[in-house]
Design goal:
MetI-like fold; about 220 residues
Length: about 220
């Protein structure tokens, strides 16, 4: 009897048949949003870490303030502020854009600190040797320091990317039509939580390969001990 109730509540075939197409559509939106967040967040974080490496006091100060602020703020708060508060200063944006921008800023803050730690971990002798050959400061950074630093940052970066991309579910708060939006809407409409089960399965389908790939990348590019 209990198993029948469980099956009826969470694995109801009739309810699933009505909402699975919505969940699939939500998967595409989630995938697109997650990819856009990763590209923008990592690119911005790397650019900020490179700028910080030139040790200009004013620039470094603002980069540190940015990184500390967005690492401290919950992503949901950033999404809500961008979507609901910015229209009051004539900076209205769509729910998708607000979610993308918020998650990208949070990822950029973490990525900047991770890349910066990687840059600092490269021995100073590498920089001195490169400069002694006549390479400029920028050339030294791009061709000598960053290839080593990025390799060192792969494990923490992959973990942070997975954590942030799963945060796309927060977009449902501002009605981004991703997985959780359709799953929660379907559950409310049907009076049955089966759409939430479909949503959970969709996240497994999307992110389990990412987790497996990230583990392979960490192993592939790890320093030999």
């Amino acid at each position: 009897m209990e198993l029948q109730r469980l099956a009826f509540s969470f694995f109801n075939g009739e309810v699933a048949s009505r909402y699975w197409l919505d969940i699939v559509h939500g998967m595409w939106v989630t995938t697109y949003l997650a990819a856009a967040v990763v590209i923008a967040g990592l690119g911005t974080g790397l650019a900020l870490a490179m700028a910080r490496s030139f040790q200009l006091k004013v620039a470094s100060f603002f980069i540190v303030v940015f990184a500390d602020a967005f690492r401290a703020l919950p992503p949901l708060v950033v999404i809500i502020v961008l979507f609901f508060a910015f229209p009051y200063v004539d900076l209205a944006m769509s729910a998708f854009t607000a979610t993308w921008l918020a998650l990208s800023l949070v990822l950029a803050a973490f990525a900047e600190e991770i890349f910066w730690a990687g840059i600092l971990s490269v021995p100073k002798g590498q920089t001195e040797a490169a400069r002694s050959t006549g390479m400029s400061r920028l050339q030294t950074l791009v061709y000598v320091i960053l290839p080593q630093a990025v390799r060192l940052t792969i494990p923490p970066l992959t973990n942070r990317m997975i954590a942030i991309t799963k945060g796309t579910a927060l977009g449902s708060v501002v009605a981004v039509h991703e997985i959780i939006y359709y799953a929660s809407s379907g559950a409310s409409e049907a009076g049955n939580p089966t759409p939430l089960t479909l949503g959970a399965a969709a996240y497994v389908v999307l992110f389990l390969p990412v987790v497996i790939l990230s583990r392979w990348v960490e192993t592939r590019f790890a320093w030999k001990r």
